[in-house]
Amino acid sequence: MPAAPSAPARSPHTSLKRPPAAERVYTHIKEAVLDRRYEGGTLLTEGGLADAVGVSRTPVREALLRLEVEGLIKLYPKKGALVLAVSAQEIKDVVETRLLVEEFAARKAVPASPQLIARLEQLLEKQRQVAEAGDLAAVAVTDRCFHAEIVKNAGNEILSRLYDQLRDRQLRMGVAVMEAHPGRIEANITEHGELLEAIRAGDAEGAAQVVRRHVGRVRVLVRGEDR
Is the pLDDT of residue 3 over 60? Predict the structure, then answer.
C-alpha cells in the first residue's frame, strides 16, 4: 500500500497571521492618541493615516468610526477626524469614579494576601525601571496596572469591569500629567510605595487616605492648577 503523501513543510512564519488592516489602523491611532503623539486638536486625514500604516482608505474609515464611538475622535465629512481634547468635565468624572472605586478597593485589600503584596512590589519596581528609561507611555501603563491590581483583588467583578472602562482615559491623562509635571513621576512612585506599605501593614483607612490624596491630585494637575 503506497504511503500517504506527507504534509507540506510549514514555514515557521505560517501561523503568524498579520492583524486585519482596520485593526492595524485602529491600534496605530489609539496608541498615538493615548501617548499624545496625536494630541487633542490634531486633525487626522484618511490619506495621511493610510500612508502611515500602509493600507487603503477603506480600513481607515472603519477604524475611525470605531474610535469615534469610543469618544477619542470626532469625524468631519470630507475633512478628516479631529482628536478630541480631554475636557474638564471628563477629568472630573474620571477622578470621581476612580476615588469611589479605588478607596473601596484599598480598604477591601486589607488584610492582603502574599500574592497581592508580591504583585504590587513587582509593579512598583517595574514602574521605577520604565521611569528611569524615560518611557512615559510605559510609566502610565504600569501606574494604572498598580491600581488595577488592587481593584481586581477587591473581589467585586462589577467594579472591576467599571474600572476597566476608565483605562484609556487614565492612560491619556497620565501621560499629560507627566509631560506637564515631570517631577510628578517620582512623586507617584513614592505615593505608590506609601499605599503598598499601608496595605502591607493592614492599615485599611491609611490606604484609603493615600488613595484619596494620590488620585485627587490628578484633577488639579491635568487642569494645570498646580502651584
Answer: no
